TrEMBL record, chain A:
Organism domain of life: Bacteria
Top-level taxonomy: Bacteria, Pseudomonadati, Pseudomonadota, Gammaproteobacteria, Oceanospirillales
Membrane listed as a keyword: yes
Signal peptide stretch: 1-23
Membrane topology listed for this record: Multi-pass membrane protein
Record keywords: Amino-acid transport, Cell membrane, Membrane, Signal, Transmembrane, Transmembrane helix, Transport
Record protein name field: Branched-chain amino acid ABC transporter permease
Annotated organism of origin: Vreelandella lutescens
Family the UniProt entry places it in: Belongs to the binding-protein-dependent transport system permease family. LivHM subfamily.
Subcellular location: Cell inner membrane
TrEMBL record, chain B:
Organism: Vreelandella lutescens
Domain of life: Bacteria
Name of the protein in question: Urea ABC transporter substrate-binding protein
NCBIfam families: urea_ABC_UrtA
Pfam family, one: Peripla_BP_5
Listed Gene3D superfamilies: 3.40.50.2300
PANTHER family in the cross-refs: ALIPHATIC AMIDASE EXPRESSION-REGULATING PROTEIN (PTHR47628:SF1), PTHR47628
Species lineage: Bacteria, Pseudomonadati, Pseudomonadota, Gammaproteobacteria, Oceanospirillales
InterPro entries (alphabetical): ABC_urea-bd_UrtA (IPR017777), Peripla_BP_I (IPR028082)
Keywords, sorted A to Z: Signal
Signal sequence segment: 1-34
UniProtKB/TrEMBL annotation, chain C:
Signal peptide boundaries: none
Family annotation (PROSITE patterns): ABC_TRANSPORTER_2
Keyword 4Fe-4S: no
Record-annotated ABC transporter domain positions: 32-272
Keyword Nucleotidyltransferase assigned: no
Protein name: ABC transporter ATP-binding protein
GO molecular function, one term: ATP binding
This protein's UniProt keywords: ATP-binding, Nucleotide-binding, Transport
Lineage: Bacteria, Pseudomonadati, Pseudomonadota, Gammaproteobacteria, Oceanospirillales
CDD domains: ABC_Mj1267_LivG_branched
Species name: Vreelandella lutescens
UniProtKB/TrEMBL annotation, chain D:
Cellular localisation: Cell inner membrane
Coiled coil: none
Protein name in the entry: Urea ABC transporter permease subunit UrtC
Main location: membrane
Membrane-related topology note: Multi-pass membrane protein
Transmembrane keyword on record: yes
NCBIfam families referenced in this protein's UniProt entry, alphabetically: urea_trans_UrtC (TIGR03408)
Residue ranges of the TM segments: 20-41, 84-101, 137-160, 167-185, 212-232, 264-283, 303-327, 339-359
């Protein structure tokens, strides 16, 4: 890899001169023969030769070089049967729109059969990235400069270190300067130079740690000790970060459990209905998201946001259908509702299988939800889960408001306390039942929308969560939303804390057994409903 | 209450009796007797409902397609082929029951079926007892060779071993995380790989990380961050994934979100094919690897024809093909060839005839049926592309013959399988020259003596 | 028939209900002591340091407005509810706070609920059979046989509660009054030392009430009976000693006339009662 | 009537006094005999011949029927809706499976005299302690009853003592079987993980791959079902049975008349678990494999459906339900796989909503209508 970089350097100088040249005179396009030759060199089988060809392209002062390399990196640089090199603009389906690699003019659609892509492997991918990074170091675009600076960590060799010094000096962007300094420091530390070690003290970047590790067993005792000390400090830092990370994992798993369970907490806790189809209502929410993304191709973000209300509506409507169609006939027979709704869950699953497909569906994660929020080099929090966590809390708060502050909430509580009394006070109990169940189901739909960002969107989505959600509700105390929240989050954290040493399976088992025993001790959960109401 | 019941009993029970008898009669009358001019019956034993339907239903369609094509080409021995489809519903005991139904009741001439190892294990005794033919199209853990089963999927030495060699020689990986779902295929494969890495490449204990997760595991945060730390020690690291089915989507999502790039820590998967990818947004996964014996992106006309036929058969422009489908393609043609060769569909005749039969595969080469009932396959390494396809970056210079018994497991090191006369043995022990079992027996006696 | 005869007859009728020897020690008179008992459901004191003693063989009526804590008191005695403070003794030997419902029941405390609860799926006969005092551990119950003697006892009680005709009907179909009777019958089968009877005559006709009154008064003497009742007429007809509960503690105690003249009582209970009736 | 039925005789032989049991046993043995004759006497190919496959199928149904009876005992008479009976069934099955594995001996693919194949290729040094003794039939068969019984005892003791009932109990029984499923999936557990136990050879010296043995197993299962039925019948017709019903309908009241309800619940729960275990043990050699999927909550709920369909609190209803549903399953998954789950799901809904007393209830209802019988309806159960 270093080899490519040094070579990259040479071209870099050329490039910069080329740029300055362009500044004065009109761009002198080198004849396409040369370009064609450069590209043809790529169309070989051996990856080593391809490596050479890439270097050649770098060294050429052709300003299309970067585009070619990028296309090569993306696997969009291909050769048509007639020998022309083309850039594939969209490689989905069987016929692809392409453009000429040299002239950039569109050549319409071409069949896969007539195209040979110029394959690369991870080694070349690395080479290309580094090369592009070096080029980008001089790019006017600050983002490119930053990413290239990040890229160079641990990739610096003596030669490059020299050239970087002035770049650091001139770099006006702090991030770029910081990264490049680190990059050089890493190189120096690996060389066993004190300066490097000092510069790296407290840096949490893994490359820095590796470098210090090497420095720690350098023959110079002073350097070695300094490195060892630095490492010790870093290890401390890492421990803390690891703890925070586990906590975050726990919370995020917990938030999923809460989302899945909170709807049950309403239908089960408030109405006393054991809705085994709850999981399938979540599944419907997830499929709504998928549907939305199909309807709005190209803007997954918008689709996702729209599918929040949509998912709620769909699930709520199905919920109402279930309530009217089945549950209303099973008043006060919770065990029967369990069986009936279980049947419904089977039907819904099979419905999805036959109507849509037994295969999982692709739900795209929008840009702003993918990747992670970097706290420091050792701790970064995945964005999608952070959004889900936030979403869960918002949903919870919303439900609390509805239950505490609205007319519906009041009526719901009245009906659950004493049906007959509520009736006589003119509350339409049936209507309340419908609303409650619709609400619970709708929330399940919301959970589904969130889950579509974390896991499979397939017919079995629901089954994987139903038991866990019941556990959460029972553990938290039936009919108590706070209980559900606390139970969900704490179970999530317990699980994630156990996992590293117990393993995923055992952790899950331990949690289940723990809940079973807990229910024996406190049959009504963490926050039991008090008074006579609970007796019923 | 009791009084009521007593009153109603006689009638109720007599109905119950009639029901039972009716059942008996139906069961009995259901069985047909095969005549010579009847169509040749091809049993298809793939789950069409339940959790495995995702993977298996396409295989059922594949076999049906192959049968159609065969019939259009005039059938076999002048007889038409007829598919007999049953649904074992992803339920292992039901697999055994259905297999029995196919063989005892429907009296099919051959069965194409099964995906999971457990379903194969469940069916095995039935097929052996009733002397049927089973073509098993999925890559599996090996350690088995039955007289009545033909393994057209990859054995570990046709997938795992070459893949690891690619990682070591071409990518220069020095550190391996073996991540798998907790069932027999990953367990065995990983044990083989561990032994292989240590013995053949001197990889140190601490450079190998092994982790197992339950089926459909959906929360990968911890494990992925473990992998990340494992890879931060300065040595080039790769993940060898034997994660099964549904668990893959959340796994790859988590990888992408925790920013593990294929260029830093490539993941090479043995159970992720085009079909699994069709459920994932592959853009963040570009460059991750998979090892198979076939990829949809294979650039041969045979393959393009197969794909076109498949898309036509399913009527779905987006339909993808994958490795087990090719395995059925090969298996079916081998069986057809063997039937022609034997001039009959009689199981014993076909069993003898099929050994040595060679048919073209879809990647431009040929597959031959070995005496151990495994076949020769090329091994391809593909990199995930952003269009859900694999780009083939490496392949074995020649085809590799499937190995029923791994050379890296103490129990089976000295076992071989050869179903030709005179040996006709699935677990022949080359050390004590007897059929049946390894030297493990003696070892165990020694162990007990202690 | 003449009153005398009927009285005689009644004695004969009720002979079979002579309580079995129960371990309870009543040498010191009272069969039930409740001392400074307090129960609170999250803050609300349903029973507020209640003191009550029932003598052996006494018939005691307990009255009081709704929410006075009558039912809660019974819950405490039968072990359904545990008091927050205080002590409850059955005789001078058994601390009821250390026992669960079945133990208390087998000690000889029988209870009839406000809302009659019988085993609806079982026949009247079976209801009585289950209630019958017997060895109620698992295997004896499993191997229990229906002897003639047991049948006679059940028949006698059926006779008493006038359900002989319906003996093999599921209890579920009985009228409200009949259920009341069946439940009393179950009490009789238990042969308890202490009967707790919660609103026995709710939903009964005049005649039924009369029979109930006779029954309860007939029981008194052999067994101690505690009756909680709203119906003043009924209470007057049977009461020897009356306790008035108010807000979870004893407001007044004494003969019917004493309490009904007690100004406090008149104010909180009878007073309001008269207003209602007025 | 009632008094005659329970008139003074030994409790276990009481059921023979009832026509219910007489008829049931009559039909059952008639069916056994019929199938046996049709299988042995009628020649191959004759339309009335019952082939080994069908015999095997019925054998499976009968073991399911026994399982259903066990569930009906706790659900129908005790009101405990157990969503975990699959666990007891599976444990019984595993006990039997372990015995059968040990019987394979050196005939395993690796020819190891002691270790089952899966242990050999997962490189186990020696047999885990809990596998010892299973080479002895008596021990294994004892375990078939004791292992599930013990689990039920511990679980039930905890649950009933703290008065966990109704929905809560249902949910934690579900959690129980779910946890067990995960546990048995783990290969470290030493029960063969996902593959479970398979490739059985012989049972008590009989070759499991011969039709004769299969017929024998079929008959044995039939007999076991008869015995289980009699036992349950004896329990429910005894005074104890009436205490159960009393508990089901008014638990508190039962306490107030002096019964230690939790002990009765525990007793019946354990008996039921043992029957379930027995059913599992008879099931395994007939289907030739036992693996953790038998623990799946879905299966346990399905059992409940059989009972619900047949009719709760009748015992014979459970048998009808189990056989009907599974026969339907065999037919459906054969002819129209996709429709099966729809049918099953619809069954759940219709049965619970439209005929809460199941087929048995329906039949007796029709009967009542026909005879224009004025007897009142049975109390809702």
């Amino acid at each position: 890899m270093r080899r490519f970089l040094s070579l990259g350097l040479l071209c870099l100088v050329l490039l910069s001169t080329a740029m300055t040249a362009q500044a004065q005179s009109d761009p002198s396009t080198p004849d396409d023969q040369a370009a064609l030759a450069l590209l043809s060199a790529l169309d070989v089988n051996s990856y080593r030769d391809k490596g050479e060809a890439i270097t050649a392209i770098l060294q050429s002062d052709d300003e299309r070089a970067r585009d070619w390399l990028q296309a090569l990196l993306d696997g969009r640089l291909q050769r048509a049967d007639d020998g022309r090199f083309v850039l594939v603009l969209d490689n989905r389906g069987r016929d692809w729109p392409v453009a000429d690699a040299l002239t950039k003019e569109s050549l319409g659609d071409m069949s896969r059969r007539d195209l040979d892509r110029i394959g690369i492997n991870n080694a070349l991918r690395n080479q290309l990235r580094s090369a592009i990074a070096v080029v980008d170091l001089y790019s006017p675009n600050v983002e490119r400069r930053r990413s290239s600076a990040d890229r160079l960590l641990g990739e610096v060799d003596g030669e490059l270190a020299e050239t970087l010094e002035p770049v650091i000096a001139e770099a006006e962007d702090d991030h770029v300067r910081m990264r490049l300094t680190q990059a050089v420091a890493i190189y120096r530390a690996e060389q066993g130079e004190m300066a490097g070690v000092e510069a790296l003290t407290g840096s949490l970047h893994p490359r820095a740690r590796v470098a210090l590790g090497r420095a720690a067993n350098s023959d110079d005792p002073i350097v070695a000790d300094a490195a060892a000390a630095a490492l010790a400090g870093i290890e401390q830092q890492l421990k803390i970060n690891r703890g925070l990370e586990t906590l975050y994992f726990g919370l995020s798993l917990g938030s999923v459990l809460v989302l899945a369970a909170i709807g049950l907490a309403i239908t089960f806790g408030v109405m006393g209905v054991i809705n085994m189809a709850h999981g399938e209502l979540m599944m419907l929410g997830a499929y709504t998201t998928w549907m939305m993304q199909q309807l709005l191709p190209g803007q997954p973000g918008l689709a996702l946001i729209l599918s929040i209300p949509a998912g709620f509506m769909v699930a709520a409507l199905v919920g109402i259908a279930i309530e009217r169609g089945v549950i209303q006939f099973l008043k006060g027979r919770p065990l029967e509702t369990l069986l009936a709704t279980f049947g419904i869950s089977l039907i819904l699953q099979q419905l999805v299988r036959t109507v849509i497909s037994p295969l999982n569906r692709t739900v795209v994660t929008p840009e702003w939800m993918s990747g992670s929020l970097v706290i420091n080099d050792a701790l970064s929090l995945t964005l999608n889960r952070m959004y889900v966590l936030g979403f869960a809390l918002v949903v919870f708060a919303g439900l609390m408001l509805i239950m505490r502050r609205t007319r519906l909430g009041l009526e719901v509580r009245a009906v659950t306390q004493n049906r007959a009394m509520a009736r006589s006070m003119g509350i339409r109990a049936t209507r309340v039942d419908i609303m409650t169940f619709a609400l619970g189901s709708g929330v399940a739909g919301l959970a589904g929308v969130a889950l579509s960002q974390l896991t499979n969107v397939g017919p079995n989505l629901g089954q994987n969560y139903i038991i866990d959600s019941f556990m959460v509700v029972v553990f938290g105390g039936v009919g108590n939303l706070w209980g559900t929240l606390v139970a969900g989050l704490s179970l999530g954290i317990i699980n994630q804390v156990l996992e590293p040493w117990a393993g995923a399976v055992l952790a899950k088992i331990i949690v289940l057994v723990f809940i079973i025993l807990f229910i024996q001790k406190r049959p009504r959960g963490l926050f039991p409903q008090k008074g006579r109401a609970a007796e019923g | 209450m009791t009084t009521l019941q007593r009153k109603t009993h006689p009638r109720t029970l007599s109905r119950f009796a009639t029901a039972l008898i009716a059942a008996a009669v139906m069961g009995a009358s259901a069985q047909a007797v095969a005549q010579e001019d009847d169509p040749i019956k091809v049993g298809i034993l793939h789950s069409l409902s339940g959790t495995m339907a995702i993977s298996e239903s396409t295989l059922k369609d594949t076999v049906e397609m192959l049968i159609e094509q065969q019939n259009e080409a005039g059938g076999l021995l002048g007889r038409q082929l007829e598919a007999v489809v049953v649904d074992p519903a992803s339920n292992w005991p039901l697999f055994a029951e259905r297999a029995r139904e196919l063989l005892a009741q429907e009296e099919v001439d051959v069965i194409f079926g099964n995906w999971t190892s457990v379903s194969r294990k469940a069916v095995l005794p039935v097929v052996e007892e009733l002397n049927g033919l089973l073509f098993y199209p999925v890559q599996y853990e090996g350690e088995e060779s039955s007289e009545n089963v033909f393994y057209t999927g990859a054995a570990p030495n046709q997938q795992a071993i070459p893949a690891v060699e690619y990682l070591i020689n071409e990518v220069g990986i020095e550190r391996f995380a073996l991540i798998g779902t907790d069932y027999v295929y990953p367990r065995t494969t990983n044990r083989i790989l561990e032994a292989f890495l240590k013995d053949e490449h001197g990889v140190a204990e601490e450079d190998i990380m092994v982790n197992y997760t339950p089926f459909g595991h959906s929360d990968w945060q911890n494990i992925v961050s473990e992998i990340r730390r494992f890879g931060e020690e300065g040595k080039p690291t790769a993940v060898i994934s034997t994660i099964n089915g549904d668990a893959n989507v959340p796994f790859y999502r988590e990888l992408a979100n925790q920013g593990i790039d294929a260029a830093d820590i490539p993941v090479i998967a043995f159970s992720v094919g085009e079909q699994e990818l069709s459920g994932i947004d592959t853009a963040p996964l570009v460059g991750h690897l998979a090892a198979w014996n076939y990829f949809m992106s294979v650039d041969t006309d045979a393959n393009y024809d197969f794909i076109d036929a498949w898309i036509e058969h399913t009527g779905d422009e987006e339909a993808v093909t994958n490795d087990p489908m090719e395995a059925h393609y090969i298996g079916f043609n081998m069986w057809a060839e063997a039937v022609r060769k034997a001039g009959t569909t009689d199981v014993d005749a076909v069993k003898d005839a099929i050994i040595g039969v060679t048919v073209p595969n879809l990647s431009g080469g040929y597959a031959a049926m070995m005496p151990n009932h495994h076949i020769t396959k090329p091994v391809l390494i593909g990199e995930v592309q952003d269009n859900g396809q694999f780009d083939i970056v490496w392949q074995t210079p020649s085809t590799v013959a499937g190995d029923a018994w791994s050379d890296y497991l103490p129990g089976s090191r000295d076992l071989i399988a050869d179903w030709r006369k005179p040996m006709e043995c699935g677990n022949f022990n080359v050390v004590n020259g007897s059929c049946g079992g390894s030297t493990a027996a003696e070892e165990a006696e020694a162990a007990l003596a202690e | 028939m003449s009153l005398l005869q009927s009285l005689k007859a009644r004695d004969r009728v009720f002979e079979f209900m002579a309580p079995e020897a129960s371990p309870v020690d009543v040498r010191h008179g009272p069969i039930l002591y409740m001392e400074d008992v307090t129960v609170s459901f999250d803050g609300f004191k349903a029973i507020n340091n209640l003191n009550l003693t029932i003598d052996d063989g006494e018939l005691r009526c307990i009255i009081g407005p709704n929410g006075a804590g009558k039912t809660t008191m019974m819950d405490i005695i039968t072990g359904k509810t545990r008091p927050t403070e205080g002590s409850v003794w059955f005789g001078s030997r058994h601390n009821l706070l250390h026992m669960n419902e079945p133990e208390i029941a087998s000690l000889g405390i029988g209870r009839k609920f406000q809302k009659p609860t019988v085993f609806e799926a079982l026949s009247v006969f079976e209801n009585l059979e289950l209630a019958m005092a017997a060895d109620k551990r698992i295997f004896p119950t499993l191997t229990a046989r229906m002897t003639g003697e047991i049948k006679d006892r059940i028949d006698d009680v059926l006779e008493t509660i006038g359900l002989t005709a319906l003996r093999f009907q599921p209890a579920g179909i009985l009228s409200h009054g009949q259920k009341q009777w069946l439940e009393i019958g179950m009490l009789l089968m238990q042969r308890p030392r202490l009967l707790l009877v919660d609103e026995p005559v709710a939903g009964m006709t005049e005649q039924e009430m009369e029979r109930t009154a006779e029954l309860l008064t007939g029981l008194a003497g052999k067994q101690s009976v505690v009756v909680v009742e709203h119906d003043m007429g009924f209470v007057r007809s049977i009461a020897r000693k009356v306790t008035v509960l108010h807000q979870g503690s004893v407001l007044a105690e004494g003969s019917m006339d004493q309490v009904s003249n007690d100004p406090k009582v008149v104010e909180v209970y009878l007073g309001s009662d008269e207003e209602e009736s007025a | 009537m009632m008094t005659q039925a329970t008139s003074s005789q030994f409790w276990l032989t009481r059921p023979f006094g009832e026509r219910a049991t007489q008829t049931f046993l009559g039909v059952l043995f008639a069916a056994l005999l019929l199938v046996t004759v049709l299988h042995l006497a009628v020649p191959q190919g004759h339309p009335l011949h019952v082939n080994a496959y069908t015999v095997n199928l019925f054998g499976k149904y009968l073991s399911y029927a026994l399982l259903a009876v066990a569930v009906d005992l706790v659900w129908g008479y005790l009101g405990i809706l157990s969503l975990g009976h699959g666990a007891f069934f599976a444990i019984g099955g595993y006990a039997m499976g372990m015995y059968l594995m040990r019987q394979i001996g050196e005939r395993g693919t690796y020819g190891h005299p002691v270790l089952p194949d899966f242990m050999v290729f997962l490189n186990w040094e020696s047999l885990p302690w809990y596998w010892h003794g299973f080479d002895m039939a008596w021990f294994a068969f004892a375990m078939v009853l004791l292992a599930p019984g013990l689990l039920a005892l511990v679980f039930g003791f905890l649950a009933f003592r703290s008065r966990v009932t109704g929905v809560y109990l249902s949910i934690i029984t579900q959690a129980l079987t779910f946890a067990l499923m995960l546990a048995f999936f783990r290969n470290e557990m030493g029960f063969g993980g996902n593959n479970g136990l398979t490739d059985f050879r012989e049972l008590l010296g009989f070759n499991l791959r011969s039709d004769a043995t299969r017929l024998g197993l079929f008959i044995a299962t039939g007999v076991a079902l008869a015995l289980g039925y009699i036992l349950c019948r004896a329990i429910v017709t005894s005074k104890l049975g009436r205490v159960c019903v009393a508990t089901r309908d008014a638990e508190a009241r039962t306490r107030f008349i002096g019964y230690r309800v939790e002990r009765f619940q525990l007793f019946v729960f354990v008996v039921s678990a043992m029957l379930a275990g027995l059913a599992g043990a008879l099931y395994v050699p007939q289907v030739g494999i036992i693996n953790p999927s038998e623990f799946s909550p879905l299966f346990s709920i399905e059992i409940v459906l059989w009972v619900a369909l047949g009719g709760r609190a009748t015992l014979y209803g459970a048998v009808i339900g189990a056989i009907l549903v599974n026969y339907a399953k065999t037919i459906f998954t054969g002819i129209m796989p996709d429709a099966w789950l729809f049918a099953l799901g619809a069954l759940f809904v219709l049965v619970t909503v439209l005929l809460p007393k199941g087929v048995a209830g329906l039949l007796s209802h029709l009967k009542r209508r026909k005879e224009d019988d004025h007897l009142p309806k049975e109390a809702a159960v």
